[in-house]
Fold this sequence. Notes:
This protein has one domain (7-239). It is rod-shaped and about 175 Å long. The protein is 78% helix and 0% strand. α2 (38-61) crosses α3 (68-138) and α2 packs across α6. By secondary structure, the chain is mainly α. It is built from eight helices and no strands. The chain has helices at 7-33, 38-61, 68-138, 144-182, 187-195, 200-243, 255-258, 273-287.
Amino acid sequence: MERSKYFHIWLGISALLIAGSAAFFSVFGLSKLFAGAALSVIVMAGSLELGKLVSAAFLYRYWDAVSWFQKIYLTTAVLVLVGITSAGIFGYLSNAYQGATIEFEKQTTTLTYKEDRLEQLEDDKIYLKDELEQSILSLPDNYITAKRKLREEYNPKVLELNDEILDIKQDISDLKVGLVETGVDVGPAIYLARTFNTDIDSVVKFFIFILIFVFDPLAVMLIVAFNQALVLRAEENKHGKILGTTVNPGKKKRWWEVYGEKKPLIPKITISKKTKKEIESKEERKLGKGGVPIEEDI
């Protein structure tokens, strides 16, 4: 089967990029988790990432040559390190998500509080009005002055509630405008949350889990595939040399190959005129006159 000449190079570049990205996100995610010793964690996690990839390549290349203890231990170590890398990526993406949504969540919490406060003030206003009406109705009709005094006593309270309600309504309007501006960063998450009738955190966690289940395992498998491609390429080159079928694509064609001719098997020999005459004279002496061969004495 015809294989691409440079496919193993692209495979190696892809494996390097994905493995490097996974290592970067994991290392800095773990450094955020252990912020007290960030530099130490970066060095340790970086070393483990390199060891994981080398161990995966070693297991593929020398699986039949190593003991079962090495196979079991290295396989377990690679799987555990894949889990640690995935946890680091989860920490990194979670931290990035929280950084992008912390202002949004703060404004959302404030908006919820303001809306609850507005509802409470409106209930208080209704209660005051009902209380005023009941107090007035409890007085006789000829107690006009007393009814006026009751109204004068309740009016400042009602006006105070009205002012507070107006202020809160203004704050709610400002918060909604701010949420629209802040929500641009998390707009897709908000849209998906509304589509699936759930909260934003659940949507983001779902996508983070999808990423971590694909990211580092794919990096390890590409490293193994790259080593497999190198081994297969080396075997093909080896068999090609043994069978004499190797072709050097960079070798220039000879002049006879350019015009579709085969290389001459016997090189052309040029004979000088003097040598040619000597050969003819020897042939004539052997044949004699009339072209009859001369018998030699035994």
